[in-house]
Amino acid sequence: MSTSIEIHKLTPSSDDHTNTIKTTYEHAETDRQIYEAAALNKWDDVCELFRERPELKTKPVNYLLETPLMIAVSNSCHEFVKQLLSNVETHDRDKWCGVNTIGNNALHHAARAGNIIDAKLMLQCLPDTMTTIKNIHGDMPATLAAKLGRKDMIDEVFSEYADAIEMAYEYAETDLQIYKAALRNKWDDVRELLEGRPELKRKPVNERLETPLMIAVGTNSSHEFVKQLLNNVQYQWFDDDEWSGMNIHGNNALHYAAKVGNIIDARLMGRRLSPTMQAVKNTDGDTPYLLAAKLGRKDMIGTLGTFTDNLGNLVVSTIQGGQIDFALYFIPRYTPDEKEPNALEALATKPEYFRSGNGLGFWDAYCWKKNSDRPETTYTYHQLQQIQEIERKNLPSQKIVLEICEMIEKNPKDAKKYFEPAIATAVKYGTVELIEECILAYPGLIWYEFDGYNLFHLAIKERQVQVYNIVYQMSGHKALAASELHGKENALHIAAKLAPPHRLSTITGAALQLQSELQWYKEVETFVEPEHVKAKNKDGKTPWMVFTHEHDALLKEGQQWMKDTATSCTVVAALIVTITFAAAITVPGGNKDDGKPVFLDEGAFILFMISNAFALFSSSTSLLMFLGILTSRYAEIDFLHALPKRLTIGLVSLFLSITGTMIAFGATLVLLLHDKVTWIAAPVVMMTSIPVGLYALLQFPLLVEIVWSTYGPSIFGKQSSRIIY
């Protein structure tokens, strides 16, 4: 036997459609206002609205179809409930008995929350029939209270429902027994119970409305329990709903299998249960197939069979789930359209799928770029694994972008609406390869505005240097890009504003963060027209005024960071100066009568004197550099070169002085003990290398970052030879 369902599509007139849209927007605004007021017990925020439109008192305000009464009762907002139920008209009382998506009315919500005050008030003002309404699991408010152990609620509100409550207590006992058995794969513990009362096989056993099948499937280990539970179950078209129950989030058992990657039970359910389970969407709009794609469960995707939902959703979900090669498989059937989920926008959030965001270190990335045909044997195992994974995702990503761009080139009427969100997202994430291909396919994109900013302004605002560097791949048109304005602000005003926190956090220390901001400002200053450097914005501020104001807090943090670093290092440098100076005067072994050192002819003594003198000079240099930092004026511009240079010299000198001190100490031990302990030299060398190594380990990364950011090649410049525009 089969059934067929006809779906009739209504095509309203333009005026009707416009009115519908207006009503939808209006409801969206009022729904949110009412929801917040009900949840926070703020009756005064909506009393005027309810007075003008009383029908909103009983209208659902969210996707779960919860009314203001349900929300207020759930949150024990007694004053809101009291005001809401005041002056309830007799002929309108039935309107208050509405139920949500799982059949619960406001009294069910009170039972769940243990809200005795509002439950009593509802029984006074609203129809008695509310107490007899059952939700989709067959629970009346009284039985729900019993299941949840709300003894006070039962005694004060539902005492007349003794028989139903007794049955609910019985269910509570069997639910726990079944719950534990499903979790622990103990079918034998509930075999007799479930065979004697088969309806319990499909009944929810906890507050999340999970059935025994969901719980067992979710463990990904209770396979025997699932097998026995579905034993002798054969799919019948009229039996669809019995095993297709959903939890409070709209997930069925197949969603659970998709989420945990339970292929064994997914195959069994596919054979035994209704195929309509695959089409069920949870509250996030995900079918089991889409959920598996989002989580990157490639084997599960193959197990779930044919995809029948919107193909755009699948492509986007597989991209989000990291199955980029699987997404490429569906691209030929994908139609880039503003009404479809935007695959390019999803790909724009994954810069790691492209070479620019590959995550390789500087040397590895350089070798990969220069030696793409380099033999695999020259890489370490870790490097090889990392590069192979990058190439696995990089190549399909490029193909997806190229294929979608080719599709849009053939039908460019919707290009702007499709490309705009993708480009804006790509700029924020720094996915420069995607931007380049889109501009090559549709050159006009380079002048489009995204949230009021053109491409380069947005790159400056988001501090995405690779996207900004596209300007160096332009022909003479880059002069036009320099003259573009954002309202009354030019590009330098935008560069003068503080970078987004997530971009600043990639740089170590407030001082280097301020240096980076100054580098951006100086770069854009050379890029804009000369008259823009002193131009004023709508607030009457020049770009440098904006920079000073925006970076005031960062400047103070940079000053403190520099002072703290310099103070700590000054103490160490001063201590080394004192020690080495004293050691130069009181040499090991003392002096002869003629004033010459006792060990003057020993090689170790010459090493001691040289290393000690070296340590003294280095520590003195370091001390002077750190004192120079402490006495600096700390102007913004000082953080560009002057202060980082002093800090670099100070840290290097301090490192050399520590090294010299350790060598001098080791030479002294050898001088004093070599006659008694002949093997002392080797252990001394090893021990003196420990503090030197620790200093290098702790301070070297910071030193490298300072040197690289101050003296290294500029981050701005041409990054590819091809002309984009």
From TrEMBL:
<feature type="transmembrane region" description="Helical">
    <location>
        <begin position="565"/>
        <end position="585"/>
    </location>
</feature>
<dbReference type="Pfam" id="PF12796">
    <property type="entry name" value="Ank_2"/>
</dbReference>
<dbReference type="InterPro" id="IPR026961">
    <property type="entry name" value="PGG_dom"/>
</dbReference>
<keyword id="KW-0812">Transmembrane</keyword>
<keyword id="KW-1133">Transmembrane helix</keyword>
<dbReference type="InterPro" id="IPR002110">
    <property type="entry name" value="Ankyrin_rpt"/>
</dbReference>
<dbReference type="GO" id="GO:0016020">
    <property type="term" value="C:membrane"/>
</dbReference>
<protein>
    <submittedName>
        <fullName>Ankyrin repeat-containing domain, PGG domain protein</fullName>
    </submittedName>
</protein>
<dbReference type="Pfam" id="PF13962">
    <property type="entry name" value="PGG"/>
</dbReference>
<feature type="transmembrane region" description="Helical">
    <location>
        <begin position="679"/>
        <end position="698"/>
    </location>
</feature>
<feature type="transmembrane region" description="Helical">
    <location>
        <begin position="651"/>
        <end position="673"/>
    </location>
</feature>
<feature type="domain" description="PGG">
    <location>
        <begin position="560"/>
        <end position="670"/>
    </location>
</feature>
<dbReference type="InterPro" id="IPR036770">
    <property type="entry name" value="Ankyrin_rpt-contain_sf"/>
</dbReference>
<keyword id="KW-0472">Membrane</keyword>
<feature type="transmembrane region" description="Helical">
    <location>
        <begin position="605"/>
        <end position="630"/>
    </location>
</feature>
